Structure formats: C-alpha cells, structure tokens
Amino acid sequence: MVEYLQLKLCRLKLILSKENILAFEKSFRTNFVNSLPGFKSASLIGTTSSEGRTNLTIFSSVIHIGANPPLMGFLMRPVTVERHTYSNIKETNCFTINHINQNIFKLAHQTSARYKKNTSEFDACGFTPEYSETIKAPYVKESKIKIGLKFLEEQEIKSNRTIFIVGEIQEIILPDKVVLADGLIDLETAETIAISNLDSYHKTNKIARLSYAKPGIEPNEI
Amino acid sequence: MVEYLQLKLCRLKLILSKENILAFEKSFRTNFVNSLPGFKSASLIGTTSSEGRTNLTIFSSVIHIGANPPLMGFLMRPVTVERHTYSNIKETNCFTINHINQNIFKLAHQTSARYKKNTSEFDACGFTPEYSETIKAPYVKESKIKIGLKFLEEQEIKSNRTIFIVGEIQEIILPDKVVLADGLIDLETAETIAISNLDSYHKTNKIARLSYAKPGIEPNEI
Is residue A5's pLDDT more than 90? Predict the structure, then answer.
C-alpha cells in the first residue's frame, strides 16, 4: 500500500533532464519540445522570388521586436537545405505576415507540406495572392490582418544555425472594426487563432485586460 | 446616399503606412504594434544574481529554437537601462521559464512593474521560489510547467538594440497528466494562457489538431 501510494505521488509530477529529452524517440521529442513555449502566434508568411514565383508558409515564431521603429521578427530553420521563404526575402528584400483565422487554418496548415520550388502554395493550398503598391511580396486575401515588411537584418543563432529575420513594418491592412480606441487590436473579433506545437490550433476567450502595473498597486481590469 | 455608402465601404478596411504608425500617439502605437504578432506565449522568467537576489519578470516573446539540442529563446529590451533579468543571466549563466496559468495571471502581470533591484518580484508579487539541484535560478512554485535553462548565446538585433537570448533546456518539471502519448503537452489541461498586446490575457479552446501535411493530401484531424 505504501509503495502504491508512493508510485501515485511520484506520478503526479515529472522531472525530466536534458538526457531524458535527448533519449526520447524523435517525433515524441519534436512534439514535446515544440509544446514547451506555450501558445504561439499563427501566421502565413508570403514572399516572391525576383522572377515572380510566389511562396507561402506557415510560421509560429513571429514576435514583436519594437514599436518605434515598428519591427517584427521570426525564426527560420537552418538554410542547409533550400528555403524558398529565405531566398525570396534575400532576393526581394520584403515579406508579408498574414494572421491565420478560424476559416483558413486547415489550408494554412497545408502550406507546411514540402512543395517543389516551382509550385506556389497559394495555388496548391487554395489562397489568393493580393498586392499593394507598397510591397512587392504577396498578401493573403483570405487573411484579415496583413502586415507588409521590409527586410532589415538577419541574425544567425550559432547554437543550431537557425536564422532570426527582422523586418520593418511598411504597411498594415486590417478591418477598421478590430482597432479599439486605445490602439489595441481585438484579435478575437478578427478571429485570429493560436498554435501549440506545430499542429494544434486554438481559438481564444479573453479572461481580462489589466491596467499598467505599478509597484504596490494591484492591477485593475480595464 | 452614394457618398454615405462609399464612406461605409471605405471604413471596412484600414490601410496604414509606416508614416501613419509613426504619427500615432505613443501609447496608441505601443498597443497597436504590440498586438500585431497575434497571440503570444505567457511566461515568467526567473533568475538570481550571484549574491542570491532573485528576480521574476513576465515575458511574451518566448519561442522554440530547436528540439535537438533542446533550445528556447526570448527577446529582451535594450540594456541601455539596468535589466535585472539580463545581468542575472550573465552572472549565473542560467534562467527558468515558467508558464503562466489562469490562477496566477494577475500576480504575473504585476511583475512588469518597475521594482528596485533589491526588491524581489517573488516577494512583492506573491510567488514562491522553488529550487532544484540542476539549476541555480529559481522556479515559480505556482506555475505548472517549468523549464530550467543554461544560457548559451545572445544576439543583438542591430535595428533597435534589443537582445535575443538563447538557452539550452536542462530540466523540465510538469504534471505527468499533461503529457500525451505522442509527446504533445496538453496546454489546456495545464491551464496555460496566451497574451495579446502586453496586457490582455486569454484562455484557449482547441479547434483541431491536424495530421502532418503532405503535398496533394488534405490533412485529417487527429
């Protein structure tokens, strides 16, 4: 009985070492480690080659870099194999970030399949390219929040040769109704979704928005 | 009537330029640009100075870097002013990432207040430091998914002097029941939440998990 209780207690909490993780079967490890950052942004990144071949790929690593100048960035896997997003950005110096919403997440997931360079994921996955005069790269018509960026810099992460790409926002296209009076974008009205791991899609429900935090003062819901 | 209709049509979609964004009032611009990446991970990063002064700060920029070796990273604001998280990581070569759940998001938000260096956010905000033998940095007892990392490298983003920090996972502490048979961590069972902007907290509902994408084959729900 004591042994059984100890077994149960010990099963409540897992403590895993780096060695445990490295000993996992590969797909188990990929799922596990990709889940560790929590919920991630869900974006389609649109690019074009200098000859006008469009490319569209799902990314879950887009983050905020700064508001002035307005910068965003994302992480790319090593370019030890051909990466069309990377070569297109280097050729044309621009890319678009397009939010994934509830209506398009299945098509968006399909862009992660390994298509050949002469196949556009726009055609293969059922998206419509949309162009503005500001950015050469294609936007995704079916996305509701679209951001056009100029490539600014890349930083190689030496530890595993992934590449962090930084762009400056040149243009934003979004529904008027999702921008609140103080600048916040209401992502739930825009039906933007979140990703966990590389394959799990989630909608959200706001718990609360909190006031600016100051020492000694409990934040209010705003 | 025609004019009214045109006005309505034009209000449906906003097209904003970089100049429009730069002309926004500062707090409007901050809210707006911080909303643009979509939903973000919600983490508390725990550190300690070489003298044992603990620090805890909320971050929404934690991303996956690689599964083998297991790496995670996050972006820090420029160190032009004193950043305790940064100086502690450089002093002790380690940090912890702790998921924010529904029960602790208000306390977690409070860690963004500007406390003095000799005030620990653990004490000031009501968190309990928890230690393991593997990592010198403190975990957050009230968090359910906790990751201990060794500092590996930093890359300065030249465009605005923010710093991308990369760590190697040394240890993970999490409830046994949230790890599914194929390695996926069920973040909803762990009650991990997501952030938009810097102040809006969201719980999630899974829409679907999709099979590995292959060209020409529609993904299934798994």
Answer: no
In a mutagenesis test of the A interface, which of B21, B103, B114, B145 is the best target, namely the one with the most A β-carbons within 10 Å?
A: B21
CA distance A172 to A187: 14
CA distances from A108 to A92, B93, B199 (A): 23, 39, 28
Write out pLDDT tens, residues A19-45: 999 999 999 999 999 999 999 999 999
Check: CB of residue A133 under 8 Å from CB of residue A148.
no
Mean pLDDT value of segment B8-26: 86
Q: Which residues contact A121 (CB under 8 A, 6 or more apart)?
A: A54, A55, A56, A57, A110, A111, A115, A127
* Alpha-helix runs per DSSP H in chain A: 2-12, 18-23, 26-35, 84-92, 105-110, 121-125
Of the candidates A60, A162, A183, the beta carbon closest to that of B32 is on A183
pLDDT of residue B82: 82
Chain A residues close to B115, C-beta within 8 Å: 215
pLDDT at B10 exceeding the cut of 70: no
Give B98-116 pLDDT, tens digit per residue: 999 999 999 999 999 999 8
Burial of B99 (0-12, 13-18, 19+ CB in 10 A): buried
pTM for the model: 0.94
